[in-house]
Design goal:
- The complex is a heterodimer.
- Chain A has a 7-stranded mixed β-sheet with strand order 3-2-4-5-7-6-12, with helices on both faces.
- Chain A folds into 2 domains: about 180 residues, Rossmann fold; about 120 residues, Rossmann fold.
- By secondary structure, chain A is α/β, with parallel strands linked by helices.
- In chain A, helix 9 crosses helix 13 and helix 10 crosses helix 11.
- The N and C termini of chain A lie far apart (about 45 Å).
- Chain B is an alpha/beta fold.
- Classes of the chains: A alpha/beta, B alpha/beta.
- The structure holds thiamine diphosphate and magnesium ion.
- The site of magnesium ion (MG) has 6 residues of chain B, from strand 5.
Chain lengths: ~325, ~375
């Protein structure tokens, strides 16, 4: 096994699946010789040529709209949005077509495409480059919304996303792209979409996070352990369709939970998660469920972004608040 | 009915006044006062030197990522120079020199690129939109502004800038079409610098020019040598006159070149050759304009040195002012300002939450 960054692990997933399935094509802005602005498709044009690694004109609606056509035809397009903040140009293609074609054709036409997009703050980027708007896609019936939290699960989930029979929005945290390395096996590895993972066991409290927020959440759990509080940590991995079984099981033991995301608070994923817990585990709750989120603001330009983002301290405060009652 | 031919008059004009060898076409020379010629030169020089300084600051970690403008000073200054204070500027993100000439303070540019929201504050008297990062999106705002200006019975002009890459976005096509339909007083300036990050022009579009796209929408379009400030000036003058006389919009393609990286985060060696860049460096708009001014007897070595000194001093003042401001501006609570006119109660609570957190932090720092 090689130690890889998330960028390298994603590149591996693309490279291997392109070798295996000649229906897999990449399309996006600067995905060719440039290898994508984050180098996720580095070298792929040399291996698979311009026909399969397609540098498109600067038009996001075109990228997604064409991918829909390719997918209906039977290819497996993987689109890259240069930044998730520019995917809105493609919103109507995703909402009005990608998400609905199976339904509108009563199962006859399907859209097995992936839209990859870097998301999230914390990397001192220019404006429009730091948002965390997964709720938009998670809110759309017919789309799947996946967010990996490290190199190994990024590789496995991207492979599953490409093979998934339905459209998958795949958000990649820029802050995680090169933050740390993990062992990633050379041999193929997939992970089921729609399944969350228990990454730390604990009986006193359930912490739920995903993407870039998993790391500070794990750090907070380690801090809590010093005080004798054993927190379970659940990594969502898929935002939609949301896997609520693991979290419900956990909260039935702990009675307490904190949800963490960098997306704005109102109508964010936390609101849905907490409602599910309330619906299915109300009588097990020992304290109000807390959420640690971005504020309901446009993420400020980078000199102030650190204070916008949830951090270990805020997670600890919320965790301790669940212990008081 | 047999097949017949419709004559759309499909021909595109190209304008160059100072040619490659810096030979002036006297007949086409625009009539610009000496004072304004020197002012034009000063602003181009300022744009160049400020850009160079920003690159230094970025390399030293004193500002964040930014898109250099080097080589595009003629395309933007020759155009924006026609705007009166009552006209509107709707920029993309590579018009730093044009924005500064309009009144944006260089210090605010530095604040912006160092991650301060205060860097987008626009002086009350200024009729400019803030720079637009989402490619092509601003083009439609220009059409709306122009529609409104026309509706109000003014002779105001709206000038919008965008790149060659932007012409692939739907917003560009929608904007041109709407402007033509409403005969809105817009001057569309495309800075065709041959690259959209790593995508060369030939991969961006299949037409020979960008200017010809104007014809599809029913408006005049012209291609000009964008490194020849006189040509840009002359073409934009015509377009502005047209707009002011209620004769509708114009598309002007300024052919120029991005001699630097796309932004300081980009590595052009991955996708283009040094030789290609070198060819364009020879067409640098600044020395071309200098030669013209020298030949007219408006500029000599001493005059140039004086101007260089003045420009450098101005830049230093801006850097000092920005760095001083950055020390004073840090308060994170400012992030809650200006989202709505009035902060709704749930946001007020979030603001208080952050305030408490900041106070606790301060206490900790004081005691620790
Ligand atoms: C809608 C949108 N898509 C993608 C980007 C990322 N991006 C920023 S600049 C750029 C290239 C722009 O090329 P062009 O319009 O030619 O302008 P130039 O950079 O050459 O000035 C891209 C792809 C963006 N900012 N907005
Ligand atoms: Mg360009």
């Amino acid at each position: 096994m090689a130690k890889m960054t998330m960028v390298q692990a994603l590149n591996l997933a693309l490279r291997q699946e392109m070798a295996k399935d000649d229906g897999v094509v990449l399309l996006g802005e600067d995905v060719g010789p440039d290898g994508g602005v984050f180098r996720v498709s580095d070298g792929l044009i040399d291996e698979y040529g311009e026909e399969r690694v397609i540098d498109t004109p600067l038009a996001e609606s075109a990228i997604v709209g064409m991918a829909i056509g390719m997918a209906v035809y039977g290819l497996k397009p993987v689109c890259e949005m240069q930044f998730s903040g520019f995917a809105y140009q493609a919103f109507h293609q995703l909402e009005n077509h990608a998400a609905r074609l199976r339904w509108r054709s009563q199962g006859r036409l399907t859209v097995p495409m992936v839209m990859r997009a870097p998301y999230g703050g914390g990397v001192r980027a220019l404006e429009h480059h730091s948002e965390s708007r997964e709720a938009y896609w998670a809110h759309t019936p017919g789309l799947k919304m996946v967010i990996p939290s490290g190199p190994r699960n990024a590789r496995a989930l991207l492979l599953s996303a490409i093979r998934d029979p339905d459209p998958v929005i795949f958000y990649e945290s820029k802050a995680l792209y090169r933050a740390f390395r993990e062992e990633v096996p050379e041999e193929e590895e997939t992970m089921p979409i729609g399944t969350s993972q228990m990454v730390r066991e604990g009986n006193d409290l359930t912490l739920i996070a995903y993407g870039a927020m998993l790391q500070p959440t794990l750090e907070a759990a380690a801090e809590l352990a010093k005080d004798g509080i054993q927190a379970a940590v659940i990594d969502l991995l898929t935002i939609a369709p949301l896997d609520d079984s693991l979290m419900i099981e956990s909260i039935r033991q702990t009675g307490r939970a904190v949800v963490v995301h960098e997306a704005p608070r109102s109508f964010g994923p936390g609101a849905e998660i907490i409602t599910r817990l309330m619906e299915s585990a109300f009588y097990y709750l020992e304290a109000p469920i807390q959420r640690v989120t971005g504020y309901d603001l446009i993420i400020p330009y980078f000199s102030r972004e650190k204070l916008y983002m949830p951090d270990v301290k805020r997670i600890l405060e919320a965790a301790r608040a669940t212990q008081i009652q | 009915m047999p097949r017949t031919k419709i004559d759309t008059g499909h021909k595109v004009e190209y304008l160059s006044i100072l040619d490659d060898q810096n030979k002036l076409d006297k007949e086409l020379e625009p009539d610009i006062s000496e004072e304004r010629l020197l002012e034009l030169y000063r602003t181009m020089l300022f744009g160049r030197r400020f850009d160079e300084r920003m690159l230094n600051l970025q390399r030293q970690g004193r500002i964040g990522t930014f898109p250099p403008i080097k080589g595009q000073e003629a395309a933007q200054m020759g155009a924006v120079f026609h705007l009166r204070p009552k006209d509107w500027l709707v920029p993309a993100f590579r018009e730093t020199a044009a924005e500064i000439w309009r009144g944006r303070s260089p210090a605010s540019v530095l604040l912006y690129y160092n991650g301060f929201n205060e860097g987008t504050i626009i002086p009350m008297e200024q009729r400019d939109m803030p720079m637009a990062v989402p490619v092509g999106s601003q083009i439609l705002h220009a059409v709306g502004l122009a529609y409104a200006a026309k509706y109000r019975g003014t002779d105001e002009v709206v000038m919008t800038f965008f790149g060659d890459g932007a012409t692939s976005e739907g917003d560009f096509h929608e904007g041109l079409n709407c402007a033509a339909v409403y005969q809105a007083p817009v001057v569309f300036i495309c800075q065709n610098n041959h690259w959209a990050i790593s995508i060369p022009l030939q991969k961006q579009m299949h037409t020979a020019t960008i200017a010809e796209k104007a014809q599809a929408y029913g408006m005049p379009g012209i291609q000009v040598d964008g490194n020849d400030v006189l040509a840009v000036y002359a073409a934009v003058e015509e377009a502005c006159t047209r707009a002011r006389n209620s004769d509708g919009p114009t598309l002007i393609e300024c052919v120029t070149y991005r001699v630097m990286m796309h932004t300081t985060a980009d590595d052009p060696s991955r996708y283009r050759s040094e030789e290609e860049v070198a060819v364009w460096q020879k067409k640098d708009p600044l020395p071309r304009f200098e030669t013209y001014l020298e030949e007219k007897g408006l500029l000599d070595a001493t005059g140039r040195d004086d101007l260089e000194d003045k420009v450098q001093q101005q830049i230093q003042e801006a850097v000092d002012a920005a760095e001083k401001q950055m020390k004073e501006l840090g308060d994170p609570i400012y992030m809650f300002d200006h989202l709505y006119e009035q902060l709704p109660p749930y946001l007020q609570r979030q603001k208080e939450e952050l305030e408490m957190r900041l106070q606790a932090k301060k206490k900790e720092a004081d005691h620790g």
